[in-house]
Amino acid sequence: MGAHDYRAFSLRLTSLEADSVVHLVREDAEASLCGIPRSALGPALLDEYVCSKCVEWLGRRRAVSGEQLRVSKTQQ
Predict the structure, then answer these.
(1) Could you tell me the CA-to-CA distances from 58 to 4, 14, 72, 73, 76 in Å, in that order?
(2) pLDDT tens across 47-58, in order?
(3) Which pTM value belongs to this model?
(4) What are the extents of the domains in the chain?
């Protein structure tokens, strides 16, 4: 997997009352896109929703990564 691939993880919870959502973590990152430490996350179930903050941040990161910087041409 590449450095820009994401994995889906769920919170490791002891309470069944908490919302079940999936958090996105980049392969080379120590936390999810919404800021939850990777160590607090575990395997995700396939029938969970994706965290809305992770989705928002994924769009932001891709927008910045996709921008092309213009190089100024110098006359020689």
Answers:
(1) 11, 28, 30, 33, 41
(2) 778 999 999 999
(3) 0.69
(4) 6-61
